[in-house]
Structure formats: structure tokens, C-alpha cells
Request: fold
Amino acid sequence: MEEKNPVTEAEETSVPETDGASAPEKEKKARPKGTADTKKLRSSLDAAEKKLADAEAKIEELNDRYLRVLAEYDNFRKRSQKDRELARGDAVADTVTGLLPIIDNLMYAQKYGGADPAKFAEGVKLILDSLPGTLEKMSVSVFGEAGETFDPGFHNAVMHVDDENYGEGEIVEVLQVGYKYKDKVIRHAMVKVAN
Reply:
């Protein structure tokens, strides 16, 4: 006859009966699929994915807008440069057009007035008399006359003279007249000034 081990018998009776599943497996069975935690994580993940997609779309839109603005600026810069070149060309053409009659008259004076010096001098004087009117049409004015008060913004004093007949800073003689376009000085008048 076989003898039973008392320890083994006691162990057998104290072990609770199971359906053959381990403890972690029992937990899985006890917890149903799709609990509130999983649903919460899934909705957070969906929201994050939507935010990412929105941010990527916004970045794409801003990048597209940036590229358009950059292209518009480049076109504006090129147009502005072309407009400046055209305006400069028009200004030169207008100036030359205004001076052509004077140039033509000087050429006629040279061609036909060489035989008689008096007629030549008279022709040149008539041409020079017409010059201020031509310059005025171009908004260019002549300045610098004896008796004016010296102004360093308009005059360039190249000589000084001590003469009690003239006041302090009075222009005694104009060596070269000055020209200005509207308010901008083109050339300062070269003058002799009294101290």
C-alpha cells in the first residue's frame, strides 16, 4: 500500500480551484475592451492628429502666401527700376528737346555768321537771350547777381575782397552763375565776396 504524503495532501486541499487561467489573464477577462481610459486616449490622439493636420495646412498656406509676397515684391522692384530708367530717359529727352533750338541756332551762327563778326556777335546774343526762356520751361532758374548777400547754400565764394564800398558778405562780382531746378541747386554760383 502506498503511503500518502501529508504535506502534499494539505497543499492540494488549500489550493483554490481555478478555471486554468493565470492571474493576468483573469484581469484581462475582468476588464472589458474599450474602457473609458482607452476611449479617452483614443479621442486625445484623434484631437492631436487633427491639430497637427490643421497646423500643417496653416504652415502650407503661410508658406504659399510668403512665396506670393516674395514674388510680388521682386516684380515691384523690377517694375520700379524699369520706371526709373524710363523716367530718366524721358527727362534727358525732354531736356535735349528744349535745348535743340538753341543748338541749331548756334550751328547756324557758326555756319553763316563767320564772315561778318558783328552779325555773328548779334546772332549769339539773340541765342543767349532766348536761353532763360527755354530753361524756365524746364523749371530751371538762374541765380547769382552782384549785390546779393552771400549764401553758402547757393554761392561758392572763390575770392574775397576788402572794400569799404560794399557791405559785409555782399557779392561783388559773379564769376559763374548758378542754376537750380525748382528748389534743388544744380550748380552753385561762383562769386567774389566783400569782407
Remarks:
- The chain is about 60% helix and 15% strand.
- The first strand starts at residue 140 and ends at 143.
- Helices lie at 6-14, 23-30, 36-112, 117-137.
